[in-house]
From TrEMBL:
Active site residues according to the UniProt entry: C148 (nucleophile), H261, H261 (proton donor)
Keyword check for Transferase: no
GO MF annotations, alphabetized: gamma-glutamyl-peptidase activity
Cellular component GO terms held in the UniProt record: extracellular region; vacuole
Organism domain of life: Eukaryota
Enzyme class: hydrolase
Pfam families: Peptidase_C26
Protein's organism: Papaver atlanticum
Name of the featured protein: folate gamma-glutamyl hydrolase
Principal subcellular localization: secreted
EC number of the protein: 3.4.19.9
Catalyzed reaction equations: (6S)-5,6,7,8-tetrahydrofolyl-(gamma-L-Glu)(n) + (n-1) H2O = (6S)-5,6,7,8-tetrahydrofolate + (n-1) L-glutamate
Length: 347
């Protein structure tokens, strides 16, 4: 009963920005009074998320040897869809004017895992990050989630330190999360987690690690640009017992970055180490729900036909799970040498 009351109290407190009336929540010894502001129908219930593609085919060339190919693991698409949103692929090597025009069709962006940390891919990530900040600065809420490689690239972009990342032994194992102290989870990705699940995150291996690079808490705090932009929510320790930053949230923007994989628990089966317990799947769902709840605040209302013409449903995923490792499904995009692709927009 105490868990239920605390969870309900936390939930009602999280609504403070959305209502303007007093709600009384009876407790065993007291009433919790929550003063919140009602926002009516301003939320957008048809959100679309742009997912940036990554170089390659997601299978070391076994599926597509085109040097201009890029891919999105289907688990990221399912992750977004599970929370009630749709996906438009942002093909990293298509003409920039087309790529950035697609940002006008979405209500948030997801940067995925991968390996590419330089060249055109880095430049595109930097350009998207800049535009995310600009849109938020105009008063239009526009969330950005960055997972694994996405986390690493944001650290490089924000810190302006090409050597900010250091090697860690965190490739292919599940781990706990350790929360920063003191921690206030209200307004963060963890605000929807029950007290019981929050506790389990610190004692049970419910999150998947699949990376070789990271940032130590000390190095993170030593970089003034990083520690002024982000606050650290959690850390993890690698297999050598070295600590690294694992979840950060921007202080002034709806940007959250993860040095772990929230999408894998429910949607990937290529590694036996991925946790698939009910608690682990709840982690995936809560993280997805939080992201899309932020995307629903977006003011962007693109034309329906433009969205439909560019949705990922126009592409067919490829099953690659028989290899017994890596991704189960990927969407592969081939970009012509001449870069003559075009954005499908109605007149």
């Amino acid at each position: 009963m105490n868990y239920l009351l605390v969870s309900l109290k936390n939930y009602l407190n999280s609504l403070k920005a959305n209502y303007n009336k007093i709600i009384d929540l009876p407790g065993e010894d007291e009433k919790y009074r929550v003063d919140v502001q009602y926002i009516g129908n301003s939320l957008y219930y048809r959100p679309v998320i742009g997912i940036l593609t990554h170089p390659g085919d997601g299978a070391s060339g076994r599926l597509n040897k085109d040097k201009n190919a890029s891919y999105i693991a289907a688990s990221y698409v399912k992750f977004i869809e599970s929370a009630g949103a749709r996906v438009i692929p942002l093909i990293y090597n298509e003409p920039q004017e087309i790529l950035y025009e697609k940002l006008n069709l979405v209500n948030g962006v997801l940067l995925t895992g991968g390996w590419k940390k330089n060249g055109l891919y880095y430049e595109v990530v930097e350009g998207i990050f800049k535009r995310v900040l600009e849109r938020n600065d105009t008063g239009d809420p526009f969330p950005l989630f960055a997972i694994c490689l996405g986390f690493e690239l944001l650290c490089k972009v924000i810190s302006k330190d090409a050597d900010i990342l250091k090697k860690f032994s965190a490739h292919n194992h599940a781990s706990t999360l350790q929360f920063s102290k003191p921690i206030d989870i209200q307004g963060t990705v963890f605000q929807r987690f029950s007290p019981e699940l929050l506790q389990k995150l610190t004692t049970h291996c419910l999150v998947m690690q699949l990376h070789k690079w990271g940032v130590s808490p000390e190095r993170f705090c030593q970089n003034s640009a990083l520690c002024s932009f982000f606050r650290v929510l959690t850390t993890c320790v690698d297999e050598d017992n070295k600590e690294y930053v694992s979840t950060v949230q921007a202080r002034d923007y709806p940007i959250t970055a993860f040095q772990w994989h929230p999408e894998k628990n429910a949607f990937e089966w290529g590694y036996s180490t991925i946790p698939h317990s009910e608690d682990a799947v709840q982690v995936t769902q809560h993280v997805a729900n939080y992201f899309i709840s932020e995307a629903r605040k977006s003011l962007n209302r693109p034309r329906t036909r433009d969205v439909l013409d560019n949705l990922i449903y126009n592409y067919i995923p490829t099953y690659c799970g028989k290899a017994g490792r890596g991704y189960d499904e990927v969407y592969i995009f081939s970009q012509p040498e001449s870069n003559n692709s075009s954005l499908l927009l109605t007149e």
